[in-house]
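ARCHIVE CARD
Drawer: 12
Card no.: 0347
Subject: one protein chain, sequence and derived structure
Cross-reference: see card 0346
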Amino acid sequence: MKSVQQLQTIINYHFNDELLLQTAITHRSYSKNKNNERLEFLGDSVLGLVISGYLFKRLDTAAEGELSRVRASLVKEDALATVARDINLGEFLLLGSGELKRGGYRRASILSDALEAIFGAIYLDAGFDQCEKTILFLYEDYLVTLPSSVDLKDPKTTLQEYLQSRKVELPVYKVTKTEGKSHDQIFTIECSVTGLNIVATGKGSSRKKAEQMAAAEALKQAQNGK
């Protein structure tokens, strides 16, 4: 386990109150009473505001929908986990023995929550301006070239627009199977497009992810004429 001093050097910020950072890297499996869940809640809000402000200034001609899609691509779980892996955050996390055995230090949800908790901790330790500096520092490589908002449309939105343009009834999604324990479930979703006689399935660690996978498969079938 690496020290919080090393982590502070990596994120280019040294805490006045190191206990805040200690809490930020503590998962609830390690301590039910003193963990990073509340800091994660705070950090999520601060991150959203920082990225929103940056995009508002950078994309000064973009419409609200475009700004929302680009922001979502930067603050979603996978994006946060990628930034967390860039700084090897998993090596600093305090996890319970069970979570360690399951490889929790590699899980996107745990990494993303911990990174948001660190943002929350910095906000409490030094205020918004410092938190903004740290976020933009860690996100620097991903802000150089921003993705096109057109490419960021999720499969469900793209499928809906495709069907609407052809005056086809919108898809219906339903859960057909749920596997695994409550903390580590896999959902199977069925996407039905009655007007095109399409039934597609998708799997994911959440209903939302499974729906997106099913929508992508349905879109593929629709575009290829099944």
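Annotation on reverse: The radius of gyration is 20 Å. The longest strand covers residues 172-179.
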